[in-house]
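Researcher: Please generate the 3D structure of the following complex. Treat every line as part of one assembly.
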Amino acid sequence: DTGVSQDPRHKITKRGQNVTFRCDPISEHNRLYWYRQTLGQGPEFLTYFQNEAQLEKSRLLSDRFSAERPKGSFSTLEIQRTEQGDSAMYLCASSRPGGATGEQYFGPGTRLTVT
Amino acid sequence: DAKTTQPPSMDCAEGRAANLPCNHSTISGNEYVYWYRQIHSQGPQYIIHGLKNNETNEMASLIITEDRKSSTLILPHATLRDTAVYYCIVRITSGTYKYIFGTGTRLKVLA
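Model: Done. Output below.
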């Protein structure tokens, strides 16, 4: 079990630019989640995939955000026309199929700074 | 999902037990209690979870009251490496199984 990996770990971008983050879940996990965490707050749910299907999106996920998981393995989160308010830690988590109590395993996160 | 209430911060002496409380008075019968911790600048780390029975693993013990309206996470012998923010989460066992985090308890273990 190599754990959830995220790339890049840090990203600095100028306002108005597009950015894309990647998440590689634990290999046998079919559920994948994206969360966002701002300073001093707990993580907030953004979106959820079961295999390649995106089954829930939070109201936090504005039209500038899009997430994909094309083959049910890795996932990408893209933010278009970044704003300073998008500065946050973006966390990915995965969990195994079946079992209503399956815990989520989190990656190290991607810290985005929009200047 | 049920909301949780935790004290914002706690201190604990190294080597002593750390008891972290959580109130979840609106929990439903099919909702589990999960505990995670987050060490500075890392992703949250799973600690333990339970439904109504007390649970123990190599990291911690979870005590859930009989009415399930509150729980306590116990770190039996706290070390400096246990300094972190601890989150208590109540999650419904259907649908997306997403987590709703609160602001957690910042535990500081003192030498």
